[in-house]
Amino acid sequence: MQQLSVKHLLGIKGLTRPDIELIFETADTFKEVLNRPIKKVPSLRDITIANVFFENSTRTRLSFELAQKRLSADVINFSSSSSSVKKGETLLDTVNNILAMKVDMIVMRHSSPGSPHFLAKHISANIVNAGDGTHEHPTQALLDGFSIREKHGEVGGKKVAIIGDILHSRVALSNIFALQKLGAQVMVCGPVTLLPRYIRELGVQVELDVRKALQWCDVANVLRIQLERQQIKYFPSLREYSLYYGINKALLDSLDKEITIMHPGPINRGVELTSDAADSHHSIILNQVENGVAIRMAVLYLLAQSR
Amino acid sequence: MQKRLILDSRLLDIMISRLCQQLIENHHTFSESVMLGLQPRGIFLAERIRQRIKALTNIVVPLGYLDATFYRDDFRRRETPLKPNATRVPFIIENHNVVLIDDVLFTGRTVRAALDAMTAFGRPKKVELLVLIDRKYSRDLPIEPNYVGRHVNSILSQRILVEWKEQGAADDNIWLINP
């Protein structure tokens, strides 16, 4: 019987292609569960999960919490803004105190890249990385891959352009790993100041012209401009960014091809995507949100069996 | 390892006919009845039964596939991970007579989980259980079938192997395996 090759979900880099395919197959069955009159199964009823969020989050946290509740797990929530972290407690002390309350799994978001890897070396509970700084956001990449598979039948052979703030994005890195493992071709597109210097070494194509990127791809995964992570100005103004890299309905219509628009949210409407593009038939943004719950249920379910 | 053939395709065919006659006798026109095949192997028996009922009466009985993996009580207690199968119940079971169909009844735990899984789709009027093989004296729970293909006396260490053509076997065969 197939099982995950990992005990923790720290990043896509550590997963194999069969791992990703197993997660997708399991998510298929959970998607069916989510469309039932009673959307809940008792699989994780003896498991306690702590959602430990050292950084703000709306949809990822809600999506994880809903996934946990749909699986009947006991859930506790922690956010650093209202905790003893403000008093100077270390990450390990905080988590060890949570574990002393007999918690089985930790879902953690942290601003420091590598923090879940550090934690995995010191504690026995399963850890799910819900985003570590600008490093990885594995469940987002999984739900993105799953959404592409749902829309196009398969991910292998598809051309996916990741457009926007690649430099500050953990979604971009996890997406590149996931899409490549599944056999897709990946391009990154954005202002040269927002492209990591060594990005080509990951085997992706680089394009600076958004129109050319859209002409090339089947799927455009448009990323949010992360102003909160930018200590210096990487482009002159949001208005200029939207003029050169913003995607609108007129641009999509002028391409004369079917293209799928994705966005991990939250959208800066009018900056990276205009409303007429975000809400058009090209967009599968809300499908991504729906699939996020099924993917997170699958990850938690599979990790719970690998304990 | 020794294996003994307890049902071949000819006997199986006769047995399925007899089970269908019993279902027809109790459900008449099947106007308020539906069938649920239990994943993974109960669905093959359920499909055969549906086809045979159609051949005998020209009635197409609604048939769904039910997977009880998420409702099992041995999650994280088994050495091998539990991988779910697809559930497909494209009809209403509220106030309907449901026939659960599985190939082998052993401890009764799968049927217990299936009863839980079924209630996620509504509250049926009545539920019956049809199995091809009833392993006697091996029940952990007070669950008994309404329709039985064959009762088999077996000990815990023995195993029943069901081979269906639909799964790629050369012929339908049911074996009793001695370790």
Helical fraction of chain B equals 25-40%
Span of the ends, CA to CA of chain B: 5 Å
Q: Which term fits the overall shape of chain B?
A: globular
Strand order of the largest sheet of chain B: 3-2-4-5-6
Gyration radius of chain A (Cα, Å) is 19 Å
- CATH topology term of the domain at 33-153 in chain B: Rossmann fold
> What is the CATH C level class of the largest domain in chain A, in words?
Alpha Beta
* Number of alpha- plus pi-helical segments of chain B: 3
CATH architecture of the largest domain in chain A: 3-Layer(aba) Sandwich
SSE map:
The complex is a heterodimer of chains A (307) and B (179).
Chain A: H1 17-34, E1 48-53, H2 59-70, E2 74-79, H3 91-99, E3 105-110, H4 115-120, E4 126-132, H5 138-152, E5 159-163, H6 170-181, E6 185-189, E7 205-207, H7 210-216, E8 219-222, H8 238-245, H9 249-254, E9 260-262, H10 275-278, H11 285-305
Parallel strand pairs in A: 1-2, 1-3, 3-4, 5-6, 5-8, 6-7, 8-9
Helix pairs in contact in A: 1-11, 2-11, 5-6, 5-11
Chain B: E1 2-7, H1 9-27, E2 33-38, H2 42-57, E3 63-66, E4 97-105, H3 109-118, E5 126-136, E6 147-153, E7 159-163, E8 173-178
